[in-house]
Design brief:
Length: 131
């Protein structure tokens, strides 16, 4: 059985946060899934990549500035009927209500736990593929 190749968009204004996201997800978050990454450091680049690539999942930094991941997730979901699933990394678990309002599919909390991150990403990718 061959692995399913998925494209994950990493968004943060901080390159170290993008590196931590990439390391937490890994290139094989679960058996049968292989991940490649595209990266955005600002809002315009994030939207351009969603337009230019077939993105299977957006992993967004909720603490990015000036455009936070929660706002970007909401904007893309409002603008596109075919918006990819979104997972936002937040600093405080208390911000989950805001992510829910933005119709985010999942949240993770800084610092990222590789086991939880990989499992969450794999579940979102599999759910999106089945839809």
């Amino acid at each position: 059985m061959s692995d399913r190749q998925c494209t994950v968009l990493l968004y943060s204004d901080d390159p170290q946060v993008r590196d931590r996201m990439r390391l937490a997800v890994g290139t094989r978050p679960a058996p049968g899934l292989r991940v490649e990454f595209v990266e955005a450091s600002d809002y315009a680049e994030c939207v351009r990549l969603v337009d230019d690539y077939e993105i299977d999942l957006m992993l967004l930094d909720g603490e990015a500035s000036p455009g936070g991941g929660i706002g970007i997730a909401r904007q893309i979901k409002d603008d596109r009927d075919d918006a990819p699933p979104t997972c936002v990394v937040i600093a405080r678990a208390a911000d989950r209500w805001l992510a829910a309002y933005a119709e985010v599919d999942a949240t993770l909390v800084h610092p990222l736990d590789p086991v939880t991150t990989g499992a969450t990403v794999a579940e979102l990718l599999r759910t999106h593929a089945a839809a």
